[in-house]
Write a structure and sequence with these properties.
The chain is α+β, with helices and mostly antiparallel strands. It has helices spanning 2-16, 23-34, 41-51, 57-69, 115-123, 139-148; strands at 74-77, 83-86, 95-98, 104-106, 133-136. It contains six helices and five strands, in the order ααααββββαβα. The chain has a three-stranded mixed sheet, with no helix packed on it. The protein binds zinc ion (2 copies). One zinc ion binds next to α6.
């Protein structure tokens, strides 16, 4: 399964760069990758609390920072005042964000992964970060809207 493979991969990369895999770190990693729901640090923390109540929010932030600096997690702001994290697909990809329920969905369009590179070439910039977001109603919210009408 993709999530399990990805969890093992990130653990290996942490080890390779000299980080210890503590039980807390592992919990955070699992919460980050489990649902591929682009959780915020606070959501990860709430999830981790259930299995590892001694883990602090600071540890969650620190682990996410480490992963981000390693390029193993994509950090994004979607307008709700919090950072959200995608550890399953750390490479560039666009997102669709539901303005009603806040759901964040990966958009997979072939060829789009080279967009940052193309943007760099077109502008002459050395690109450090990129974000492409589309806002609208998710399928579920569209259905609920129809039912309400
Ligand atoms: Zn929605
Ligand atoms: Zn994503």
């Amino acid at each position: 399964m993709e999530i399990q493979r990805r969890t093992a991969e990130v653990q290996q990369k942490l080890r390779d760069s000299g980080h210890r895999i503590t039980p807390q770190r592992l919990c955070i990693l699992e919460a980050l990758l489990a649902a591929n729901s682009h959780p915020s640090a606070e959501e990860i923390y709430a999830q981790v609390q259930r299995v590892s109540p001694t883990t602090s929010l600071a540890t969650v932030y620190k682990t996410l920072d480490t992963l981000r600096d390693m390029g193993e997690v994509m950090e994004m702001e979607v307008g709700d005042g919090r950072f959200h994290y995608d550890g399953v697909h750390p490479q560039f990809h666009p997102h669709a964000i539901c303005t009603r329920c806040g759901r964040i969905t990966d958009i997979e369009i072939p060829g789009l992964t080279s967009l940052p590179e193309q943007a760099g070439e077109a502008s002459g910039y050395e690109i450090h970060a990129q974000r492409v977001e589309f806002y609208g109603l998710c399928v579920e919210c569209q259905n609920q809207k129809e039912q309400a009408e």
